[in-house]
Amino acid sequence: MKLTDRWYSDRLQQEVSIARWGHFGTPVLIFPTAGGDCEEIERFHVIDALSDLIDAGRIKVYSCDSVAGRAWVEGDGSDKHRAWVQNQFHQFVLHELVPGIRNDCHSPDIGVIAAGASIGAFNALAVTCRFPEVFTKALCLSGTYDLTRFLTNGGMPQDFYYSSPVHFLPGLDGATLDALRGRFVLFASGQGRAEDIGQSWRAADVLGKKGIPNRVDAWGEEWPHDWPTWRTMLPKYLGELA
User: pLDDT tens-digit profile of 110-123?
Assistant: First the structure.
């Protein structure tokens, strides 16, 4: 059921691994957490949790290495370099990964659902807001949506600004915003250990002020920032969205 691939990306100047589970259904791109690889969601039993949806042919799940997330958490190079990696990662998704997904689905224009937890939620939100011609919905779990805490020099590189929805959306106008108003973003967060649901409310407020449909679901204090929470959330919400 699993298919893996790996290729060198000129945009990222490194090799990136990709994994796929399933044969039919709506394509869902699940971004890893900060340091994760393309098979992280299998090791943490997310694929098992999604097996009913996968086996029923409702979804095909894809994932890739967290190239930009690793750059942030490992402090790789300068702020400018890490912001460049983040922007290039999104360009890799649009220009390399999505065409591969569409080819695998035998459909040149099929829409993709973006999903992820923690920094994976940031990437799911970002690619949907940047590329609404491709991504139809975003499922953002326990997200960290403002990455300025990773900046060390006090400024904001241009690549960072254009990669960060909470920063570029307030000034967005034109065709991209028009397309985004036809998309949907679902934020979900627990309120237990290490969770910060305020991040979700703040991001939702930015979207709401631009007329972008979204919803915040607050889970209780028994739901921590951890895989058991996300294994419960993902099948529930993908059953709703796919």
Answer: 999 999 999 999 99
Give the global pTM: 0.97
Q: Do the Cβ atoms of 47 and 98 come closer than 8 Å?
A: no
Q: Which pLDDT score, from 0 to 100, does residue 167 have?
A: 98
- Three-state DSSP at 89 gives helix
- Contact yes or no for 168/161 (Cβ under 8 A): yes
Domains and CATH numbers, the chain: 2-241 (3.40.50.1820)
Q: Return the DSSP state at 158.
A: H
Closest CA to 217 of 165, 146, 142: 142
* Cα distance between residue 203 and residue 54, in whole Å: 30
Backbone angles phi, psi at 44, to 5 degrees: -95, 20
User: Residue 129 gets which letter from DSSP?
Assistant: H
Higher pLDDT, 62 or 74: 62
Segment 155-178 shows an average pLDDT of 97
Alpha helices per DSSP H over the chain:
40-43, 46-49, 51-55, 67-74, 79-92, 98-104, 119-130, 158-163, 165-168, 175-180, 197-209, 227-241
